[in-house]
Design a protein that fits this description.
By secondary structure, the protein is mostly beta strands. The protein has one domain. The chain has 1 helix and 9 strands, in the order βββββββαββ. The strands form 3 sheets. It has a 5-stranded mixed β-sheet with strand order 1-2-7-8-9, with no helix packed on it. The longest helix is centred in the C-terminal third of the chain and has 6 residues. The chain is globular, with a radius of gyration of 18 Å.
Length: 126
Amino acid sequence: MVSSGAMEYKNYTPHTIRVIGQQAPNFGGSEVDKDGYLPTLTFPSQGVARVAVEESPLSRTYGRVTLYRCETGEVTGLPTQEEGVLVIVSAMVRGASDRDDLVSPHGLVRDEEGVVVGCKGFGVGW
């Protein structure tokens, strides 16, 4: 579990999640560097939450590509909810669950070659 301020996070994606430090001129405090940026936070994987997907091909193809009707099913692999802890999961897992402690990476940050190196923050559904 990684702490960030008063909130703790558990990463239940298969990847290390990096929240890239954003400029925060009004944030203040000792966490902001001399140029006004928050530090990059790193959340190592602590498990993997998954969502089952039931798929069925549509009756015809579109431009030689088969389209599938996909419906999400059961979410597995989530830890027990804890007060003051947010769980980082994929957006698909978050969307398939009714839990109010789930967040997902939001605002992907890419390097010069287009490779994802982190995110700007977390998206929520509540």
